[in-house]
């Protein structure tokens, strides 16, 4: 009986051949990872790395929701009355402004703002060798800088201890996203992203078009109320739109005016707040070295220049040696029969 039991067992079900283990290992190694999966910054990626936004982007749905709800109330309760008493072009204009605002907002939120890739270990070691003059591996010198000349004016480049590199001109490290952003303007929680070199034009078009949309709706609501002559038939929805527009229009118009000043001066919010080129700093050459001394040229350089390419290559594949350790043979699944009866194979 004992021999019969051994004859009924298929030996191939009890052992895992080296070739089978190698096939399982190769299958796991063949799965290449994209660079966005191991990106060191505090960002979120959507659609397999095609879209990028800040990890803390919870205010973005609120921004989008306020715009959509306000416009829906306007189209539902104001437009029918205004079309009947004024012109049919009111909902057309409102719809075009709404689409432009929404597209500008989404492009600002999902566009790489100009993130600079961090230095590789070899690049970081080479920079450390160039600037380490202390002779001690434990000594950390004060913040290191380099000086370069831009338009006959000295500009200091600061060293970023996180990204292990000297920041290019107008670059700053965002503490919320943990990235160095080229031509950093500010981190905007309302759009859920940093605003920098690559998405500033979309941000500016968003706030300017939102100013037009808010002013347009506010004016239409006032006209609606005036034509009805404050009758009792005025709905609560119309009053809600009026309150929303009244409290938001001033901040939006002020923000648009401020950024129009920045664009005309070729400044960033970060530079203006810090007073980088203010005469109050007491330096001899305190003018803005990036200004073209022309409002039109500054506007064209900021808003109409070619879109620079993204430098982080977030959808590129990692080299096989950086994609993660290969699966060991202990991770290979054994056949069910062998897993359960492997301890009873000794005859």
UniProtKB/TrEMBL annotation:
It comes from the Eukaryota. The keyword Membrane applies. It comes from Monopterus albus. InterPro entries: Palmitoyltrfase_DHHC, PFA4/ZDH16/20/ERF2-like. This is Palmitoyltransferase. It is a multi-pass membrane protein. PANTHER family: PALMITOYLTRANSFERASE ZDHHC18, ZINC FINGER DHHC DOMAIN CONTAINING PROTEIN. Its main location: membrane. The lineage of its organism: Eukaryota, Metazoa, Chordata, Craniata, Vertebrata.
């Amino acid at each position: 009986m004992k021999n019969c039991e051994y004859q009924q067992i298929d030996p191939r079900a009890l052992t895992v051949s080296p070739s089978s283990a190698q096939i399982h290992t190769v299958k796991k190694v063949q799965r290449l990872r994209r660079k966005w999966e191991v990106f060191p910054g505090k960002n979120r990626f959507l659609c397999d790395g095609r879209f990028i936004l800040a990890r803390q982007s919870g205010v973005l749905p609120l921004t989008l929701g306020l715009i959509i709800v306000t416009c829906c109330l306007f189209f539902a309760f104001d437009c029918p009355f205004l079309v009947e008493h004024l012109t049919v072009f009111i909902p057309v204009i409102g719809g075009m402004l709404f689409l432009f605002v929404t597209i500008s907002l989404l492009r600002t939120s999902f566009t790489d703002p100009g993130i600079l890739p961090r230095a590789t270990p070899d690049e970081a070691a080479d920079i450390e060798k160039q600037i380490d003059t202390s002779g001690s591996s434990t000594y950390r010198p004060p913040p290191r800088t380099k000086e370069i000349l831009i338009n006959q004016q000295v500009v200091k480049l600061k060293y970023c201890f996180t990204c292990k590199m000297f920041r290019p001109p107008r670059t700053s490290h965002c503490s919320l996203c943990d990235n160095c952003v080229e031509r950093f303007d500010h981190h905007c929680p309302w759009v859920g992203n940093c605003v920098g070199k690559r998405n500033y034009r979309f941000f500016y078009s968003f706030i300017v078009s939102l100013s037009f949309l808010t002013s347009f709706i506010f004016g239409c609501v006032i006209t609606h109320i005036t034509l009805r002559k404050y009758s009792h038939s005025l709905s609560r929805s119309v009053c809600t739109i009026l309150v929303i527009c009244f409290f938001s229009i001033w901040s939006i118009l002020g923000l648009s005016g401020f950024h129009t000043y920045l664009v005309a001066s070729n400044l960033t919010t970060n530079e203006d707040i810090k007073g980088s080129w203010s005469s109050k700093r007491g330096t001899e050459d305190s003018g803005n070295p990036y200004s073209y001394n022309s409002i039109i040229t500054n506007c064209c350089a900021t808003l109409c220049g070619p879109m620079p390419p993204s430098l982080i290559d977030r959808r590129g594949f990692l080299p096989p040696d950086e994609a993660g350790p290969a699966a060991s043979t202990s991770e290979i699944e054994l056949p069910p029969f062998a897993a359960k009866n492997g301890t009873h194979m000794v005859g």
